[in-house]
Design brief:
There is one protein chain. This protein is α/β, with parallel strands linked by helices and 276 residues long. 40% of the residues lie in helices and 16% in strands. The chain has an 8-stranded mixed beta sheet with strand order 2-1-3-4-6-5-8-7, sandwiched between helices.
Length: 276
């Protein structure tokens, strides 16, 4: 089945990927492909947009309409694509540095507009491709090339930011919980409005090595042992949850979608113009 999906959805002449051994980006990319395949989407009606970074290289490996854009601007490009052709299913692939740092302002405004985009943020807790600098999601006091004595910033919870900024579908899973991740991506794609799915993944090369987290296998095990389903969180005390993170669906509501509101305005102006 996996080889069939690779032939069907990947640009095989671009493989193998540049990702390091133990990296989780391949797992998440595969989850996106499986979600698209499960939904039986028309490949010609799917557009995948990415920014810059390790995760954003995924668009180059996938055989859809794809756009590999500038750093932090994937959502700006995706917004333009969706407004120009609302019939497209537009999926944004981004990393925690690309989305939460340089692209942070584009992120909050895409949430605010509730434009029908599905954004999947690969969160490996570090800038990988550009040299292992700390990102907004690097845990406090963890090390990076630019914080060799520990990061004194508090790390960003992008799911909470997405909900506060106006996104209407918000969820989180991990590269360990693949089946859940596939289902959440499917629901995000089918949701009419701005969907944000955070995918916790591992970077053994820069984040894991500097923070003694072990290899990719050990980092997957950490995801398994520290993720708590949002449906089960009431079973845990505050102390038990102190070193855990929540996964699952956090928000799924219906609100007016941006391109639909835009079309209504255009049509109302045409009527008013005819009246004159």
């Amino acid at each position: 089945m996996a080889s069939e999906l690779i032939k069907k959805y990947y640009r095989t002449d671009t493989l193998p990927t540049i990702w390091c051994p133990g990296c989780g980006n391949g797992i998440i990319t595969s989850a996106i492909v499986r979600a698209i395949d499960n939904l039986n989407l028309d490949r010609d009606k799917v557009c995948i947009v990415s920014g810059i970074g390790c995760s954003s290289r995924a668009s180059g490996y996938l055989n859809f309409n794809t756009l590999h854009t500038t750093h932090g601007r994937a959502l700006a490009f995706a917004t333009g694509i969706k407004v120009a052709n609302p019939s497209l299913t537009v999926i944004v692939i981004t990393g925690d540095g690309d989305c939460a740092a340089i692209g942070g302002n584009h992120f909050i405004h895409a949430c605010r507009r509730n434009i029908d985009l599905t954004t999947i943020m690969f969160n490996n807790s570090i800038y990988g491709m550009t040299g292992g600098q700390y990102s907004p999601s690097t845990p406090s006091m963890d090390k990076s090339t630019t914080t060799p004595y520990g990061n004194i910033d508090r790390n960003f919870d992008m799911c909470k930011l997405a909900m506060a900024a106006g996104a209407t579908y918000v969820a989180r899973s991990t590269s360990y919980h693949v089946q859940q991740l596939i289902k959440l991506i499917e629901k995000g794609i089918m949701h009419r409005g701005f969907s944000f799915i955070e995918a916790i993944t591992m970077c053994p090369t820069y984040y894991g090595r500097k923070n003694k987290k072990g290899d990719g296998k050990e980092m997957l095990k950490w995801q398994k042992e520290h993720a708590v389903s949002v449906d089960n969180m009431k079973k845990f005390s505050k102390e038990e949850l102190s070193d855990k993170f929540l996964i699952g669906e956090f928000l799924n509501i219906d609100e007016p979608e941006f391109t639909e509101k835009y079309d209504k305005m255009i049509n109302s102006l045409k009527v008013n113009s005819d009246d004159k």
